[in-house]
Design goal:
By secondary structure, this protein is α+β, with helices and mostly antiparallel strands. It is built from eight helices and eleven strands. The chain has helices at about 10-25, 25-65, 65-75, 85-95, 100-115, 120-145, 195-205, 290; strands at about 175-180, 185-190, 215-220, 225-230, 235, 250-255, 255, 260, 265-270, 280-285, 300-305.
Length: about 325
């Protein structure tokens, strides 16, 4: 049929043209190919670098306690996903140290940089509390000190050198416990003001040495460790929602039926952002490295209550 067959020599001419084009632009093609390879390598390298940086930030944040340490982490990891929690911890540390202006600045910076972060609601609460304290310190302090009904807390004269003790009663310190492991001692502070019932259960069992000799379990791989008191009592407690985030090194009581288990406690080895249906009742302040060395069926040598408040610790069980 006319027009159905290709003209003789058409294919070779096309190949010749392609070869000619390739030879003419060989340098450009090689340059583009090399650029794409380099770009791909850089993308993968950045991905693994960012991942490693986040892991380092998590580890350093878990052991950071002082303002200087947290401020250093803010500078070092300010562009990582861990930055919101670093900034939040730094603001809280300033607040706890009574440095209200610095704390306010950090909270405000958090709101500007991370308005959609899940910690925003806690920042709002902290700012409201800070502003109330600042107003009282600026306006109501002198007036209340002049009221004859104010009963000052007895203290030594040397205490008056500390500005935190210049007015008002001294708040009792939080209870502190020591957990002795094969790899060393772990010190934890208990949030009695937020989770009084959970702390009462833990302190009572620790005083009874119910955790001594208990074996660790690993939950969720490297997510948390768990230990159960050596007691036949099945202690279920009501859930106390402390609104505290699931940060690494947090002590928690896990969910049990309609409440939480009072004779089983867990310690988070890494942050769990979506933590729910548990009671956060403390945090590890020293010895976090010893926790990371825990293996399944390792034994707790002892759990000792180092300090506690001057009242009985008697937990109230969940009503059935």
């Amino acid at each position: 049929m006319k027009g159905s067959a290709a003209a003789p020599g058409a294919a070779p001419k096309l190949l010749d043209r392609l070869n000619e084009l390739g030879e003419k632009h060989a340098t450009a093609i090689i340059a583009v190919s090399t650029g794409l390879i380099i770009l791909t390598v850089l993308i993968f390298a950045k991905y693994f670098y960012d991942k490693a940086q986040v892991e380092r930030a998590e580890q350093e944040l878990a052991s950071a306690e002082s303002v200087d340490q947290l401020a250093g982490l803010k500078t070092k990891y300010g562009a990582t996903p861990v930055a919101p929690r670093i900034l939040f911890r730094l603001a809280n540390r300033y607040y706890e140290d009574g440095k209200l202006d610095q704390a306010r600045n950090e909270y405000k910076e958090f709101q500007q940089r991370f308005p959609q972060d899940r910690l925003s609601v806690f920042v709002v609460r902290a700012l409201n509390s800070l502003e109330r304290n600042a107003r009282f310190d600026a306006e109501g302090k002198e007036a209340r000190l002049k009221q004859s009904v104010l009963s000052p807390h007895p203290r030594q004269l040397s205490d008056l050198k500390d500005p935190r003790f210049q007015w008002g009663p001294v708040v009792e310190a939080r209870p502190v416990v020591e957990i002795e492991l094969a790899a060393g001692k772990v010190t934890a502070e208990l949030y009695e003001d937020d989770a009084s019932n959970a702390v009462a259960a833990f302190v009572k069992l620790a005083d009874q040495k119910a955790f001594d000799g208990a074996k660790w379990e690993l939950i969720g791989g490297d997510e948390r460790v768990q230990a159960q008191a050596k007691t036949d009592a099945d202690l279920a407690l009501p859930l106390e929602d402390t609104k505290r985030p699931g940060d690494a090194n947090a002590l928690i009581l896990p969910k049990k039926d309609a409440g939480v288990s009072g004779n089983t406690f867990q310690i988070l080895l890494r942050a769990v952002p979506d933590l729910k249906d548990v009671t956060v009742f403390g945090t590890v302040t020293q010895g976090a490295d010893a926790l990371k060395a825990v293996k399944k069926d390792d034994v707790i040598k002892s759990v000792k209550v180092v300090s506690k408040r001057s009242h009985a610790y008697e937990p109230q069980p969940l009503k059935k």
